[in-house]
Amino acid sequence: MSSPSMHQPFRGRTAVVTAAGAGIGRAIAVEWSARGGAVVAADVDIRAARATAAQIRDRGGECIAVAADVTDSSAVPDVVDAALADYDRVDALFNVAGASLPKRVDEMDDADWYRVIDLNLTSVYRASKHVIPQLRRVGGGSIVNISSTAGILAENRCSAYSAAKAGVLMLTRNMAMDYAPDNIRVNAVCPGSTMTPRIKDYLERVPGHGSLLDGLCPMNRYAEPEEIARPAVFLASDEASYITGATLAVDGGLTAGKHFAIFEDA
Question: Which pTM does this prediction carry?
Fold first, then answer.
């Protein structure tokens, strides 16, 4: 007979999820809750965060919504304070917030560059800095950083984004080394093309590109946000207790290698 802990292994644990208002962030929040954990859904759009919280509560889970701009140094401590006020602990942090800016280096100004780096890379440092003491307080925990395949393979017209996401991977490894003695595991997930609201909006504004993006990976389709959320939540679970400093590509085979059509007839 299975025990309740097998079905709800995160019962009594709390996760902070940034960019939890939509897409991958919302899917992670819902997945964590489905396994019994409480969620602090942080998003710059408080209405979106509240929608995530409502969805989780409607399913019988626990979730609070917090407005948080991860590029604002004063915002992250407020998220941690909210978590402690409602749940008295933080056991996991999912750094999801990020966005791209399709510009070449010579097309960017300093404000563009620093904005992309701040949102995608510095925010990971910022959130981790304030959550790590709480993970240490409860005897350990997990940080999962959402990077991108752009951090593994450069993407055209995404210079700042690719640089930032590659930085996330190295920061992940450094934190994994630094905090292993505290029983804090730090890992990264690199999603491929995922059907988030941002991608849906792009495809609506630029028709005809859907099939081109589909063909980027051997599986020839987009990921659904839930397909990114499940591996991310796995990395924060006890099932991944000996995994730290890892980079997990969840990309339909995009980074597995090159496909040469000419060899098909060789």
Answer: 0.93
